[in-house]
Amino acid sequence: MQLTCDRNLFTQAFQSAAAAVPLRTPKDVLRNVCMQVSGGSVELIGTDLDVAVRCGVEGVTTSSTGEVLLPTQKISSILRELSDETFDIEVDERTLVLKTASSQFRLSSEDAADYPPVPEFEESDYYRIPAAVFRQMIRRTSFATDAESTHYALGGILLEFEDGSVTLAATDSRRLAVASAVCEPHGQPVVPERTTVVPTRAMSLLERSTDDSVENVEVAVRDSDVLMRSGRCTISSRLVEGRFPRYRDVIPRNPSVTVPLSVGPFHSAVRQAQIVTDEDSRGVDFHFENNILKLNSRAQNVGESHIELPVDFDGPEIRITFDPRYVSDFLKVLPAESLVELQLTNAETAAVFQVEDSYTYVIMPLAQDR
């Protein structure tokens, strides 16, 4: 097998596939990226058996056919150090040679026959979502998952398709993020009966694999897995076991007050208040009164802070306490110039941050007598 590769294009595809390679695994074969060559095209594949990335490579010249395993760490290190615009790969049985005009690397390669099969995107029935919108939806929800939860469904993102729209929802039981957008069915996709919860890692890999040149993401949900195609990359993943909470039931519907807030100044005030908190006292009091938001925090052996921010609020006084980390996580995925509505009921009821009609963030308050 012999190939001539454009270094930049090969490196981009290799990094996408390598992102699915596990850092620790009892199966040594999974420490490799599998390269499949056929009909002049090349695909790189990485997997940990739960999530897989299959990425086509541009800028390769070859007439060869076959498979070879590329040791991920060694190839990553070599690609980082190369400066030539192109390089050659030659494979002879279990020996891999990578060379440029001025350097040559000879590496041992494991048997490609031992690499597990990874599905291709061959579906004719799927949903098509604008890529930039879907990337934004992932960023706006993935931070709210709980990777360490014993309730496995909380470690993934709920994926729902209904009436020409797609919804992503994520929660760790203390906060909830929900983002929606329009989508277009291709063929006759059937919404599965079981709840579709995709591992957060798979969604993050999709976001990273989708660049500005990709127009749409195509998603096919099957009985036990999901396939997501973005440009030349396909991410496949098993679905998360467990029942996702009835998230719509926890969103308060009749707030007593609504406060419009500018993201930039509000985020700055929250970050300042967060400085004077510690592990034992993470809460920040949010006090709305007479067109002023006062943020107060106090931590033993640290000190206290008091920040004021002008806001458009002339309703009855209301105090509520939040963990500032959860407020900041939400604000930092939004443009600083954007506006949000904070919907409050009372100090004990969940607060709702609303961004137009497409993004809702719910956060549970802390007890004020903590």
Overall residue-averaged pLDDT value: 93
CATH topology of the largest domain: DNA Polymerase III, Chain A, domain 2
Cα(first) to Cα(last) distance is 67 Å
Please give the CATH class of the largest domain.
Alpha Beta
User: Number of domains in the coordinates?
Assistant: 3
Which residues sit in consecutive blocks of at least 5 with pLDDT less than 50? none
The biggest beta sheet is recorded as: 9 strands, antiparallel
Radius of gyration: 25 Å
Strand content: 35-45%
List the strand order in the largest sheet.
Answer: 6-2-3-4-18-17-16-10-14
Bin the helical content.
Answer: 10-25%
Count of helical regions: 6
The total of beta strands comes to: 26
CATH architectural grouping of the largest domain: Roll
| Assembly level | single chain
| Superfamily (CATH H level) name of the largest domain | DNA Polymerase III, subunit A, domain 2
Gross morphology is elongated
